[in-house]
Amino acid sequence: MRHYAEAMITRHWRGWTAIADANDYEHFLLSELFPSMRAISGFLGADVLRRQEGDEVAFITLTRFRSIDDVRAFAGEPFDIAVIEPRAAELLVHFDSRAVHYDTSSYLVDSR
């Protein structure tokens, strides 16, 4: 059995909400935005990281794509500009204007 995933591109992006909006934002990502991205060719999945920082909640989204061309299909040009959906704009206090992209390899653990 192979214990690693095929290489991919991970798009790293950060945004912050007020504490009162954090659960709504996470719900939007996981139940609306990411499921809708399944229609994008080459979209492989996403993770959400969150933590409270003072009176805000910081979010990091890690979206995975098969190739940088698939990222371009999602984001357009320039492909590192943040893509902010209207509902996200309502909930975010501030955010990074650009995303960062990484070549990604993963080690997989057997699910025995």
**Poorly predicted sequence stretches spanning 5 or more consecutive residues:** none
Number of helices: 3
Biggest sheet, in brief?
5 strands, antiparallel
In N-to-C order, the SSE pattern is EHEEHHEE
Note the quaternary state here: single chain
Write down the CATH topology: Alpha-Beta Plaits
CATH class, named Alpha Beta
Taking all Cα atoms into account, the compactness measure Rg is: 15 Å
How would you explain this protein's 3D organization?
This protein is α+β, with helices and mostly antiparallel strands and about 110 residues long. It has a single domain (about 5-105), classed as 2-Layer Sandwich (Alpha-Beta Plaits), CATH 3.30.70. It is built from three helices and five strands. Strand 2 and strand 3 form a beta hairpin. The chain is globular, with a radius of gyration of 15 Å. The two termini are about 10 Å apart. The mean pLDDT is about 95.
